Amino acid sequence: MAVMMIISRLFIFCKILPKAVLDISRFKPRITVKNTADPAGFIKFIEPNYYDGNHVATGLIVHQKDTSVSLNFANETLPLNDKRVIGKMKRSLRLHRFCKVQTNLLHRKAEKMFPVIEPILKAHGIPDDFKFIPLVESGFGEGKSSKGAYGPWQFMAGTARTYGLKVNKGVDERLNLRKSTIAACKYLRELHHEFKSWAMVAAAYNMGSPNLAHIMRKQCQCNYFRIKMNAETGRYVYNLIAMKEIIKDPKLYGYTYHKPTYSVNTSFNGELLAFN
């Protein structure tokens, strides 16, 4: 009886083994790659012999081309050894992914606005990363904020007049992208003269320089990533960085939008409204 059982099991094993070998030969292992350019730790599953510009996969071996990439705002690098900073950056990147946003509106706005904004920022010595402020400030809306801020740079009426924009019943130059960008550059230069850090300039743009100066004195702290501030301003620079990432690499964050190629007009002639 024992001999019969052994023979029976050998027969079953010999019958199943060829099919198992065939299934294994058809199997293509997926390789899990963590993109170091993405601190949110989003995972990529890639097939053998896959190449995406940052990773080369051959069989089960993944070679990373560049591990030195780090996130920054205006060349001020995030302290990614700080778990709190990593957590806030992860959250902002996650909220800006296509699965959350479900629209390419921000990319279309960037396509329209950046050719006007970029040369003006450069002419005034403002870092290029500040071009993302109108996308973060106005977001998906086009009207006034609950506090009365208006236009792509979300100027309050009084601030707009201070920096040379006409705001009255007949004319509101806060909606003029070229003129409001020039006004924003003047304001940003003044803020940098006061705070010395571009990240802190962005924070001051959001919450107002007197409020930020008060917090800095109270906490004896001048580092954006260390200082404690209100929730909106506390995530403001992270949102600017996230916006930069999704515009720069839409595919990585789930967008199907294809970046257009455009030529930058360095002259400031002509009028371009923000949301026509």
Automatic annotation (TrEMBL):
Pfam families: SLT. Residues 127-214 form the Transglycosylase SLT domain. InterPro entries: Lysozyme-like_dom_sf (IPR023346), Transglycosylase_SLT_dom_1 (IPR008258). Belongs to the transglycosylase Slt family. This is Lytic transglycosylase catalytic. The lineage of its organism: Bacteria, Pseudomonadati, Bacteroidota, Sphingobacteriia, Sphingobacteriales.
